[in-house]
Amino acid sequence: MADHIQIRPATGTWVVRAGGAVLGESQDALELTEGDNAPVIYFPRSDIAMAFLEPSQTTTQCPYKGTASYFSIVAKSGPIADAVWSYENPNPQVAQIKDYLAFYAEKVAVEQV
Question: Which pTM does this prediction carry?
Answer without folding.
Answer: 0.94
